[in-house]
Specification:
Length: 287
C-alpha cells in the first residue's frame, strides 16, 4: 500500500509531463509550418473529430498562458465588466441544441483585451477571443463590438483556428508530433500566427452570417455587425500594417452590403446592452 501511492504519483507526474511535452511539440510544429507561411496541399477535411477532441482547448489554454505572459493584458474593472456583459449576452443567445455544428453553448468563451495599436481581433483554439485596444478605439458602441465578437464566436464554435493550423502543417505531421515529438519552446510564434490568420472565404462568410443572426437572437440590432465592418474599413491607422482585421481576399464593401442585407431580414426585440462604451474606451491606457 505504501509502495503503490508513490508509484501512482510518479506515473501521474510522468503522464502530465508527457502531455505537456506533446502539446509543446504540436505547438512547435504548428509554429514552424505556419511561420514559414507554408500552405501544404492538404484536403479541407483537415482533422478528425477524435484528434480534435480536447486538443483545441488544451492548445488554446497553453497559448492563452503564453499571451498573458508576453503581452500586456488590460485588466480594468470597467473594461472587464463591459466585455462580460457583451460576452454573456452573446453566449446566452448561442443555439442550445447540438445541431450539425455541435453544442454551441458548451464552448468556453472568454475575451482577453490586449494593449496594442493593431486594429484586430483573433480567436485561439478553444474559444478565447483576443481583442486589441486599437480595434476597441475604432468602434463606436458595445453593439458594434458584439458584432465583431459574434463573428469570432463562429470561428470558435466551428473550430476554425485548430482546423487551419492542422491544415497548414498537415495531418501526418500533427499526428507525428502528438505521438512523441520533443517538446520545446516558442508558443509565442504560434500565437503570433493566429494574429494574422484568416480562414478563407467560406469560413469568413459563415462567420459574418453567424454574427448577424446571433446579434438578432441576442436582442442586439443585427446591423451592428455591418456598422462595425464599416468603422474598421474607414479606420485610418498611422501605419497601414496596423489594420490586420480585414482579409484581403474578402472585398470589404461586399461583406458590408451582404451583412446589411442579412440584417434587414432578421426580426428581433431590442434589449439594450447598457454598456457605456465611451466611458469604457476612456478607461483604456494611452496608445
Ligand atoms: Zn474571421
Amino acid at each position: 500500500m505504501g509502495e503503490s501511492a508513490p508509484g501512482g504519483l510518479l506515473k501521474d507526474r510522468r503522464s502530465v509531463v508527457r502531455e505537456i511535452a506533446i502539446l509543446l511539440a504540436v505547438a512547435v510544429v504548428l509554429a514552424a509550418a505556419a511561420f514559414a507561411g507554408q500552405r501544404l496541399l492538404v484536403p479541407r477535411a483537415a482533422i478528425s473529430p477524435d484528434i480534435a477532441k480536447g486538443l483545441d482547448e488544451r492548445l488554446g489554454s497553453l497559448m492563452r498562458n503564453q499571451i498573458r505572459a508576453t503581452q500586456k493584458v488590460i485588466d480594468l474593472p470597467l473594461v472587464n465588466k463591459g466585455f462580460a456583459v457583451i460576452a454573456g449576452r452573446l453566449h446566452a443567445a448561442l443555439p442550445e441544441s447540438p445541431g450539425a455544428e455541435g453544442a454551441f453553448q458548451g464552448i468556453r468563451f472568454e475575451v482577453i483585451v490586449l494593449q496594442s495599436p493593431e486594429i484586430n481581433a483573433f480567436t485561439l483554439p478553444g474559444g478565447t477571443v483576443c481583442v486589441d485596444t486599437g480595434l476597441i478605439r475604432e468602434l463606436h458602441s458595445a453593439e458594434e463590438m458584439a458584432g465583431v465578437l459574434g463573428h469570432e464566436l463562429s470561428h470558435a464554435v466551428n473550430r476554425d483556428p485548430l482546423t487551419l493550423l492542422a491544415r497548414r502543417v498537415g495531418i501526418a505531421a500533427l499526428i507525428n508530433a502528438m505521438s512523441g515529438g520533443q517538446g520545446g519552446t516558442i508558443l509565442a510564434s504560434t500565437a503570433q500566427t493566429l494574429v494574422d490568420m484568416h480562414y478563407g472565404r467560406e469560413a469568413e462568410d459563415r462567420a459574418d452570417a453567424f454574427s448577424v443572426s446571433l446579434l438578432a437572437r441576442a436582442g442586439i440590432p443585427p446591423d451592428s455587425f455591418g456598422d462595425a465592418l464599416a468603422r474598421i474599413r474607414d479606420s485610418d491607422p498611422k501605419e497601414p500594417g496596423l489594420l490586420k482585421y480585414l482579409d484581403p481576399h474578402s472585398p470589404i464593401d461586399q461583406r458590408i452590403s451582404r451583412a446589411r442585407e442579412m440584417a434587414r431580414r432578421q426580426t428581433f426585440s431590442p434589449r439594450p446592452l447598457g454598456v457605456d462604451w465611451a466611458a469604457l474606451v476612456k478607461e483604456l491606457p494611452g496608445r
